[in-house]
Amino acid sequence: MRLAVLQHDAQPGDWQTNLARLEEAVAVAASNRVDILLSPELYVTGADARVLAKSFTAAAIRGLHEAIESLAASYGVALAYSLPEHRERQLLIGSYFVDAQGERLAHYARVHLATAAEREVFTAADEPPAAFEYQHSMLALSSGYDAQFPENVRAAALAGAKILLVPAAAEAGAAPLALKLLPARAMENGLYLLWANHCSVQGGIQMTGTSTIVGPDGQNIQVAGHQPQLIVADVDRQRQQAIRKAVPYLARLRPEVYR
Question: How far apart are CA 51 and CA 37, in angstroms?
């Protein structure tokens, strides 16, 4: 399985431009035989919370889902992406996965809110990551902030996930997340961890870039810089199995001790 991560400079509120850039990335991914492409958190809408609240109705969001599903089907590439989610008069931050035919297979909503602006606009969800199967692999969705919490990534691994897809919106100065914290999360759970970040100003905050693909041994396979970029890596299932056998954290858990 070949995985790709898109890092780009989304324009807050300008969904037409952002969607066109996403299509360009999907076309490049398809030409490189990529199976799954992950884009940043709230990429198509932009990640400015206040713009989102004013500009994107439930009907508008449904239209964006349909457009993204059409991209997946047209290019034959599965897409992991993020959009706002309207739920019972509340707005959540959703992560979604559609297969290469444009069929939605999985959904996740962010359970931690990082900033005051987010807490003004969004509601936190309360469901852990759930694993799902695609091309004989078990995957899960999270979000950039949630994956900073060890319990979140561990929940995905315990649910059976071997690949974790993480749309992110992390500000400048957060590069250690990609180089230190996320590799630890991957290693302690034997996961491939993909983290897709913005590299532009969102809500008046400069995003850090440094999107990454981390292997199950905790090594960064690919790390982006601070400009738009597409990074690619292949999953080695046999190597992942060997790493989990050599470093059997999951097999030796004693959760009863820590309750």
Answer: 26
